[in-house]
Batch of 4 targets.
Target 1
Amino acid sequence: MNEDSESGQPYDITVTEGDAIEYVEVKTTSIPNKNWFYISRRELQFAAEKEDSLTIANVLLSKPDKASILFLKNPHKLLRQRDLNLALVMSMRCEELVGECME
């Protein structure tokens, strides 16, 4: 879906088998041992809505011709089970607001 540009959807790929639709969000890095990635509020909400129908594919591009993929099936469930954790990152606007409050 997002082969040439960002589609605006909270997933990148759909896989259809019969009546079942699997949504796949791809997160890619070339940094070894990087165990985090950015996920938008929309993607998180979509994960909660789709549960077992959503998988995050965490792709590590280690060499030009080599990749490894970790599949995170139902990330919302993994969050509830504490197998995944959330981290908050302040946007630039939030940092500006915090700076104004601190002055």
Target 2
Amino acid sequence: MPDQDSGHEAGDELVTAPMKPRGGDSDDGAGATWLARLRRSFREPRLNRGQILAAVLCGLLAFAAVVQIRARDAGSQLAGARESDLVVILDGVTEQAQRLEDEQRDLQSAKERLEFGADREQAALEQATQRATTLGILAGTLAAKGPGVRLTIQDPARKVDADTLLNALQELRDAGAEAIQLNAVRLVASTDLLDVVSGGVLVDGTRIQPPYTFLVIGDPDTIATALDIPGGVLDVLAERDATGEVSKGPDVRVDAVRAPDPMPHSRASRAERGQ
């Protein structure tokens, strides 16, 4: 009998139908594709506008939170202050505002003398001399004297570190200190304080040891009150088993001076009138 496949011609090719992948193979392929996309997203991160906007909003929110916390901390210190302390602080702020107004009037008067006065050269010389003296005191290149306070810190437990002294320095500046000396070192805007492993504090490269003595020129009542408010410098010292003694005086002398800080890249610039 003829074979059942005898109906096919010898030249015909056999066509094999493609086999459908099993369900497991399809899942493996999808998983591999997903992993490949995940790896590619990590290698080539792409930020869209929504992500950038979200990052900016998060940064602004964090900044606002920090500002609010600091303001709340400052307010909590004043909230715990005694009524008499608040009165003295308010009087100090009022006096400082009055001094600023007086200074503004003096500057306006000096300006008028320079512009319209007959003795322009003498007025310009006096103004330049006064300004040079003020800048010299602020920069620490000139000695100074005047009313102020002496803050003596005894540290028998050696727990007063650079941060504690820096906090005291900042409180003195906030209370209106005009010139400050710590032990034998003049403190200025660029002063840095570092802890020394073997003990003491490094102030602008000079090592000092307790007792620490701040000589401060400024309004004595305002500065003394600012140091003694609840949560202030004296309370922080007590938490570190240290003591702070404040004495006010009419003639505090800040004799320590320092060489001017080098400024190799800065030069004075004189703007022409009308520009």
Target 3
Amino acid sequence: MDVVGPADKTGVAPAGPAVCHHETAVLRWPGNALHVVWLVLVLVVTFSSADETSFRGVKVPDSKGRQTKAVLTFSDNHHAVEVQPARGATVSIPYASIDKCSYEYTRRHRISETSIAAAPVGVGAIVMLTKDRSHWLEIDYREQDLPKVCVVRMDKHDYLHILDAVKTHTGKDAEILGNADKRKK
């Protein structure tokens, strides 16, 4: 086998041994092998984080009845549903103490003191004509043999995922209440 070195400007290769002009070696993975490595990494990250499922777009009532942002977590490590409001104490509900879960979809007109006060301006009248749509999750559980209820308002983009997580983590289906069948699909 003849080895030919680089050609000069005339296109003729000079006589003598070939010279390697590679300054750096590049390690190239075959395309499929790189995809396999990427898939394995994604699966490892997915299954290692499968112990906890968290939802940030929820709200819970505070001590004064106002809704405050919270994080809803289904923790298989602690075997509990954890509700951590932005302000206030975290509520931890063990899976074993959950009696039932209920889902309800509500629609109501947005009439409040603010919208009534702004009605003469015109903005309040528009707000009063719109409807507030809410997805609610109610968790009935027992703490030291006392019945308790935890109510969570779910984000419209996450409520189906949350209901799936309830079934997956607690093993209980959420009971459908009220006019939930009238929600837009």
Target 4
Amino acid sequence: MYRLSPPTEATLESLLDHARAGPHNYAEVGLSQGNEAPPGYWPNRGQATLPVAFDHACEALLGLQMFDLGWLRAVGTVAVGEPVAVTTRVLGVWTAQACRVIYVEREQSRLRWGYGTVAGHAMAGEERFELRREGDRVVYEVFSYSRPATLFSRLALPLVRPLQRRFAVDSAARMARC
């Protein structure tokens, strides 16, 4: 969805409903649990050590705070099978794209979850968000792989790829402030 004004709550609810029921738009569902992108996809990765307690960072991760960036935000619930809608504003144009949570893994020293794009999303692929304790440090990592799902997104790649890299950096900085 592309608009000149922000999407309404009703529009986002409709998008979330579609994502809850719709199929994924790629075949490699769940592969973001590993560390490599499948053939034909572009990987993206960002990592930072956080100056916060692990439990506090986990609350922030499950609360989607890494998306609270001004130019980007998300709504939804981090639970397997539940949708998340991501809204961005770039060059005066608003987009809203939906994904569905594929897995949530919680251990004593690690929390990670991943979602995948669904039919209607401009891109195809997955993104994983992870927190882990490494000694007395808390490490945040975002890993994704994607490829264009539409002709428009293929044409927009010179803009999309830098935005994906920016998100990896900005989300880590946001998590450091949680």
